Amino acid sequence: MRLEVEVLDTEEEVGRRAAQLVADELAAGRLGAFGVATGSSPAQVYASLAAGRLPGWDGVEVFALDEYVGLPPGHPQSYAAVIDREVRAPLGLDPGRVHVPDGAAEDLTGACDAYERALEERGGVDVQLLGIGATGHIGFNEPGSPFDSRTRVVDLTERTVADNARFFASADDVPRRAVTQGIGTIARARRHVLIALGAAKAAVVRAALEGEVSEECPASALRTFEDVLVLLDPGAASQLTRRPASRRSPAGAR
Length: 254
Ligand code: GLP
Prior knowledge:
This protein is α/β, with parallel strands linked by helices. The protein has one domain (2-232): Rossmann fold. The strands form two sheets. The protein has an eight-stranded parallel sheet, with helices on one face. The two termini are 32 Å apart. Helix 1 crosses helix 2 (43-52) and helix 2 (43-52) runs parallel beside helix 3 (79-91). The chain is built from seven helices and eleven strands. The model is unreliable at 249-254 (pLDDT under 50). The structure holds 2-amino-2-deoxy-6-O-phosphono-alpha-D-glucopyranose. 2-amino-2-deoxy-6-O-phosphono-alpha-D-glucopyranose binds at residues 37-41, 65-66, 131-133, 139-140, 160, 164.
């Protein structure tokens, strides 16, 4: 088991560091399936990967972590639309290789099971990007989510609804439910990269890395995973009491 924490000076450096890890896996022919996250944290990773114009994306399958329940298909804030805009189009991927749970399905349980099967058939995700919510959620696994949970329908906490209201006209427009890969589903990825940016994440980052490993903080499950890299900016790292390894930009400039 390996969990490394690195603090980089800027959001751009965090993005480049994560993109480098993904690019190395791609170049080595080890990126059969790429697990992508939504939210602000991974934006620079996708920008950096797109700027790299790397060969070899053709055969890569992309799997999203989660999707809102109840948004009409094509809604600009559905994660299917977000992944299409922020990942598929910039990387020039075939839409047929991009998988997002179906939050608009009539049979949501069936859609969850189908998503688990698709992941299994692909042999699981090779590199999984993750953000962390203020509640400690990964994907949309809110506190109390069992560590062996699978893809399922979940209720969002009021805190998560409030945090995600910035993407909608008002908090009333934010769906209250979502489909998310379970923590047990996420755990099966070969490697994980968790990104947290800004002082607003400092408390939850500390809880996840230094608090109890418990369902009360879903991201603490990372400490039970095989191979995890946590990338932080100085704000997100500011409440850690144990000093993580730091990396600087190649020029060493601060
Ligand atoms: C959303 C997503 C998560 C994401 C989290 C943090 O709720 N479902 O997958 O990690 O928000 O988002 P951000 O990176 O914008 O802080």
